[in-house]
UniProtKB/TrEMBL annotation:
<dbReference type="InterPro" id="IPR011842">
    <property type="entry name" value="PQQ_synth_PqqB"/>
</dbReference>
<comment type="pathway">
    <text>Cofactor biosynthesis; pyrroloquinoline quinone biosynthesis.</text>
</comment>
<keyword id="KW-0813">Transport</keyword>
<dbReference type="InterPro" id="IPR036866">
    <property type="entry name" value="RibonucZ/Hydroxyglut_hydro"/>
</dbReference>
<feature type="domain" description="Metallo-beta-lactamase">
    <location>
        <begin position="50"/>
        <end position="254"/>
    </location>
</feature>
<protein>
    <recommendedName>
        <fullName>Coenzyme PQQ synthesis protein B</fullName>
    </recommendedName>
</protein>
<dbReference type="InterPro" id="IPR001279">
    <property type="entry name" value="Metallo-B-lactamas"/>
</dbReference>
<keyword id="KW-0884">PQQ biosynthesis</keyword>
<dbReference type="Pfam" id="PF12706">
    <property type="entry name" value="Lactamase_B_2"/>
</dbReference>
<comment type="function">
    <text>May be involved in the transport of PQQ or its precursor to the periplasm.</text>
</comment>
<comment type="similarity">
    <text>Belongs to the PqqB family.</text>
</comment>
């Protein structure tokens, strides 16, 4: 199985266009080599069948930067077969508008998210005239790539996107995914939005070679300290990395699993490789994913 990390920032990216906080200023000064595009992953068990997890507003640039996702010479046939949505957030779905050029993609989402993308942010009807996108529910185990790639959704929260904040639809609204290669036995978990740590997530980590987790915030009150306003990390749908109940405590001691953080907000000090927080992660043998990273399992 192969994981290509296409983007590693939370909504807005790093640097964010309208922000000059410490992290954004550092990134702007250092130049594009250290910039982070908005979170997106590509996964595949065989070279001609790739699936995206989430479609960020940066998806066109991300696909163009990834040789394995280019159409073979002389064809107009992408190896991209579909997109799995973890939730309905704008920074995870707006990229679908950039994938409308006739590709027959399978789009997988939890039922509440598909309903929100039909009624509240009507992507479904906007895209319908452009191509043959097939919307598929995410429930139980999915078998993709002719059965080779098994995908299991793990409900992780009922955090609604802001545009559907008043929705009374039952969840799950946010899921993580476990991927299993039915041929090699390789497995990985991808959880870029994690408002709580359910028991099902611990079970899903059993036997995986790699986990890529929500690294939006280092601390609970980070938004308020850096920007002067904003709710806490948990209220925004993200368990912080550090502090009491943070996800780093859940990762320590998991020998045999390669652990990485993604979806970093521009306020997160761990985005800076020279930060104290990054050495805390290094001591715990936990990595921060980078744009373009190639992980083979
Ligand atoms: Zn900033």
């Amino acid at each position: 199985m192969r994981l290509r990390v296409l983007g590693t920032a939370a909504g807005g990216g790093l640097p964010q266009w309208n922000c000059a906080c410490r992290g954004c200023s550092r990134a702007r000064a250092a130049g594009p080599a250290v910039w982070r595009s908005q979170e997106c992953l590509a996964v595949s068990a065989s070279p001609d069948a790739w699936y995206l997890v989430n479609a960020s507003p940066d998806v066109r640039t991300q696909i163009l930067a990834t040789p394995g996702l280019a159409p073979p010479g002389g064809t107009r046939h992408s190896p991209l077969r579909g997109v799995l949505l973890t939730d309905g957030e704008l920074d995870h779905t707006a990229g679908l508008l950039a994938l409308r050029e006739g590709a027959a993609l399978d789009l997988f989402a939890p039922a509440a998210v598909t309903a929100a993308l039909t009624e509240d942010f009507p992507l479904r009807s906007l895209l319908a005239p452009y191509g043959a996108a097939r919307w598929r529910p995410v429930a139980g185990e999915l078998r993709l790539d002719d059965g080779r790639l098994r995908v299991t959704a793990i409900p992780v929260s009922d955090k609604r996107p802001r545009y559907a904040a008043g929705s009374t639809r039952p969840g799950p609204w946010v899921v993580a995914y476990r991927f299993d290669d039915a041929v090699t036995g390789a497995a990985a978990v991808y959880a870029p939005s994690l408002a709580r740590w359910p028991e099902e997530l611990d079970a899903a980590l059993s036997g995986v070679g790699c986990v890529i987790l929500d690294g939006t915030f280092w601390s609970e009150d980070e938004m308020e300290r850096v920007t002067g306003h904003g709710p806490g990390a948990r209220a925004m749908g993200h368990l912080p990395i550090g502090g009491v109940g943070g996800t780093l405590g859940r990762l320590r001691g998991r020998t045999g699993i390669r652990c990485l953080y993604t979806h970093l907000n521009n306020t997160n000090p761990a985005a800076d490789p020279a930060s104290r927080e990054r050495s805390v992660l290094a001591d715990a043998l936990v990595e921060v994913a980078s744009d373009g990273q190639d992980i083979r399992l």
